[in-house]
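Per reviewer request, we include the raw input and output of the structure prediction for the construct analysed in the revised manuscript.
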Amino acid sequence: MNRISLLRAAACLVFTQWSALAFALDPLSYARYDQVKTRGLHIDLKADFEKKTLSGFAELSLDWVDKSARTLDLDTRELSVSKIEALGADGKWAPVKYTFDKADEAKGQALRIALTGQPQKVRIHYRTAPTASALQWLTPAQTMSGKRPFMFSQSQSIDARSWVPMQDTPAVRFTYTARIDAPQGLRVVMGAENDPKATGKGGWRFRMPQAIPSYLLAIGIGEMDVRTLGARSGVYAEPKPISLGAL
């Protein structure tokens, strides 16, 4: 074999290896996004500071890639699921079967949802654990005022699955909306569009029209005020630094 042939063979080998890496599934996710991808997410949750939990449902809007696929595999960690429903062609929600794999210390648990067809939406009713790795529940003594508790999330790198059942991988990007109930006197913030004049009556509402990876999903709940800086910007913080003009 001459030198040119050797170079061509080497180039083909490198391309083959690169292609395999480019299309390999995320080893830290159970999601089969080569079969189905989450296009949109809606979460409707209630915060319970006494139990240190979020409970409600997550609704996934799906794009089916493989027309023969009949299973939706999601990433979870310490989530308690009460029921799962799929949206039928008739516009009605119907319960579907699901199973959990054995828990893995690093990856959590695979939630495998068995489907008879390829629904456009699936809704998972669940509750987080008090030990959810992404959620930090602070006592009043850990806040500036010392009066009210505080909670915030840290979804990076693969901890979003501990508070939302999802395809928790940067290979999947989605838009989202949310409605969050919190105790009176506490404000909810998320990394999404919201009304700075909202009071929380009927729940705090958010909208993220740009597709994001799961690790950017964020939430905070606590005694907070807002200072509007412009038409599209503002600062949320505890009341004392806001009132003192420290921000």
